[in-house]
Specification:
- This protein is of the alpha/beta class.
- The chain contains nine helices and 13 strands.
- It has a single domain, classed as Spore Coat Polysaccharide Biosynthesis Protein SpsA, Chain A (Alpha-Beta Complex).
- The longest helix is centred in the C-terminal third of the chain and has 14 residues, at 239-252.
C-alpha cells in the first residue's frame, strides 16, 4: 500500500495565514499539519508517499526532502493547474503503478490508528475502494455519503440543498434515527480510479471533482466500502479551527 497526499492548494479561507505558506504547512502543536499526516501514515506501515504540491511547492519539498528523516520514501509532483480535486492526483499515477493506495487531503487530521483502519478495511474485503465518513458534521457544507445496507457506497451528494435532503428522505436514503454520513476526505483505491479521473467533465463549479470520479466508479459496479472514522477527525478549514486546535493543545500541556 502506497499513499498520496493532496497538498497543492493555497487555502484561501486561511486568509493572511497562507500568504507565504501553503495551508498544509501551517503549524498545529508546533509542527506542520502535513508532518502529522506523514508520521501517521508511516506509523501505519505506509512508507512510500507521494505528495502533490502546487502553491509554494518549494516550502513543502524542502521541508520533507526525500523523507528519510521520517523513515519514508517521499516523492513529489506538482499540480501546475489548480483545476480541482479530480485532477490533483494525476501526477502520482506513474508512482502508484499497480499498487493500491491511500489518498488523503493535506488538511485532514486524524489519529494514526485511522490509517491502519483504512488499510485493514481495504485488505480484508474484495473491494475497489474505501470511503471514510464521520457523523455530526453539517452535510450541507460538504459531501453526503449514501450507503446500502451492507455499507457499500451508493453515491456522494456534494453540499445537498434542503430540497435534495427532503427528496433523499422521501426515497428512503435518509431515515429518522439513522446516521447521516459526512465524507471525511480519506480514501483507499485500486489504481482503476485513475481511469475514472481521466474521464471527468467540469462540474457546475468549473472544476474536476474527485467525488464525481468516485460516483462514476460506484455506478460502474465497483465495490466501494464505507468506514466510519473513530475518534479524532478535524478538517483544518479556517483560522477558527486552527485557533481551536492550538487552544486544546495549550490546555493539555502540563503547567510549568
Amino acid at each position: 500500500m502506497k499513499a498520496v497526499i493532496l497538498a497543492a492548494g493555497r487555502g484561501t479561507r486561511m486568509r493572511d495565514l497562507t500568504q507565504a505558506l501553503p495551508k498544509p504547512m501551517l503549524r498545529v502543536q508546533g509542527r506542520p499539519i502535513l508532518e502529522h499526516i506523514v508520521e501517521g501514515l508511516v506509523s501505519a506501515g505506509i512508507r512510500d508517499l507521494f505528495i502533490v504540491t502546487g502553491f509554494r511547492a518549494e516550502v513543502i519539498e524542502s521541508h520533507f526532502a526525500d523523507g528519510q528523516r521520517w523513515g519514508a520514501r517521499i516523492v513529489f509532483g506538482r499540480q501546475t493547474v489548480q483545476n480541482g480535486t479530480g485532477r490533483a492526483a494525476e501526477p502520482a499515477r506513474p508512482f502508484i503503478g499497480d499498487s493500491p493506495f491511500l489518498l488523503t487531503y493535506g488538511d485532514i487530521l486524524v489519529r494514526p490508528q485511522t490509517y491502519q483502519d483504512v488499510v485493514a478495511r481495504f485488505q480484508s474485503h474484495s473491494c475497489d475502494g474505501v470511503v471514510t465518513v464521520t457523523r455530526g458534521e453539517d452535510v450541507r457544507q460538504g459531501g453526503l455519503a449514501l450507503f446500502d445496507g451492507a455499507f457499500r457506497l451508493h453515491r456522494i451528494v456534494e453540499k445537498p440543498s434542503a430540497t435534495e435532503l427532503e427528496a433523499l428522505q422521501r426515497d428512503g436514503w435518509l431515515r429518522p434515527g439513522q446516521p447521516v454520513w459526512y465524507n471525511a476526505g480519506i480514501y483507499a483505491f485500486r489504481p482503476v480510479v485513475f481511469e475514472f479521473m481521466a474521464r471527468l467533465e467540469l462540474s457546475p463549479r468549473g472544476e474536476y471533482e474527485l467525488t464525481d470520479a468516485v460516483n462514476a466508479m460506484a455506478r460502474a459496479g465497483h465495490s466501494l466500502l464505507g468506514l466510519e472514522i473513530q475518534g479524532r477527525w478535524v478538517d483544518v478549514r479556517d483560522p477558527e479551527v486552527l485557533a481551536r486546535l492550538e487552544a486544546e493543545s495549550a490546555a493539555q500541556s502540563p503547567a510549568t
